[in-house]
Specification:
alpha+beta, eight-stranded mixed sheet, 8 helices, globular, binds 1,6-di-O-phosphono-beta-D-fructofuranose
């Protein structure tokens, strides 16, 4: 079983990008260890007006601190920080966008949560997702796993007891599957969304929705199907963030042969106007997304 370092070398990944990816992956240990003493909600709101969990702010401060000291990063944009952070005296080649702790509402009930990261070359974060240089997520479930793409397919690594990330699966392809998970309140779903979910259910699709985007996506990556957090009546922008959540996950989905959409077009082609911009999200098997986009509004 090869390590993530060996995998990145074999893929001729630039050494500073490989160093950055491994540095981020190494934070899974400290983050997992912090769960036990950070179970409550903080008294603060993030820019999206959501109450921050203690682990949201703990992970944000921890990862941002590590990145700022690394000399590899020039800009950091985080779901938990209002402003984009410019790393002092850094000639770092990369800019990082991140959701430091996705699914934080599940920590207190001990369900799988994760960290989502997108990496761009250069010093700007308002970029189209298809310009991403690499994307990854750490999943804190029964195992700690790293799902990664540097633009040449998707690979899955598992954290071993000795701290090494070992390759479990390479060149992952998302199958056409039959599971679905949809966020939002059903009475507030649009007619198009309700109809589409009903059509999947009529075909025998099974519901799988945990409340953690990264954990639910990981299931879709493995078995195929659909994760959706749609627009709601009177809330056309949906809930999740384009830059921190949709683009990195979308980059991985499309590297595995899947697709990401806002219901009518590819989210990786959208240029964000604001780092905290929200968007309806549909991510999953290519066939399912193309069927959705072919439907009239
Ligand atoms: P954060 O925890 O990073 O804010 O993520 C948002 C999120 O928790 C997703 O992980 C999840 O899919 C969704 O919101 C759950 O929303 P809801 O509680 O409305 O179903």
């Amino acid at each position: 079983m090869i390590t993530v370092q060996e995998y990145l070398r074999e893929k001729n990944c630039e050494s500073d990008l490989a160093d950055l990816i491994c540095l981020i992956a190494e934070q899974a240990g400290p983050i997992r260890s912090a769960f036990i003493s950070n179970q409550r909600y903080a008294a603060s709101l993030n820019t999206s007006g959501e109450v921050q969990a203690e682990m949201d702010t703990w992970s944000d401060t921890h990862i941002s601190g590590i990145l700022a000291e690394s000399g590899l990063v020039s800009l950091i944009a985080s779901e938990e920080q209002e402003k984009v952070f410019a790393c002092r005296n850094s000639r770092g080649r990369y800019s990082v966008v991140m959701d430091p702790l996705d699914g934080s509402s599940l920590i207190a009930v001990n369900l799988a949560v994760g960290t989502i990261v997108g990496i761009y070359e250069g010093c700007s974060v308002l970029r189209k997702g298809n310009e991403m240089r690499a994307a990854l997520y750490l999943l804190y479930g029964p195992m700690t796993t790293l799902t990664l793409s540097i633009g040449s397919g998707v690979a899955l690594f598992s954290l071993a007891d000795d701290g090494r990330y070992l390759l479990m699966e390479d060149s992952i392809t998302m199958p056409e599957g039959t599971i679905y998970g949809s966020g939002g309140k059903r009475p507030e779903w649009t007619k198009k969304h309700s109809g589409f979910i009903a059509s999947l259910e009529d075909e025998g699709a099974k519901s799988r929705y945990s409340g953690s985007f990264v954990a639910d996506f990981h299931q879709i990556l493995k078995y195929g199907g659909l994760y959706a957090y749609p627009a709601a009546r009177g809330k056309p922008e949906g809930k999740l963030r384009l830059v921190f959540e949709a683009q990195p996950i979308g980059f991985l989905a499309e590297q595995a042969g899947g697709r990401i959409s806002n219901g009518s077009c590819d989210l990786l082609d959208i240029l964000p106007e604001d780092v905290h911009q929200k968007t309806p999200i549909y991510v999953g098997s290519r066939g399912i997304i193309e069927r959705l986009e072919a439907l009239p509004e």
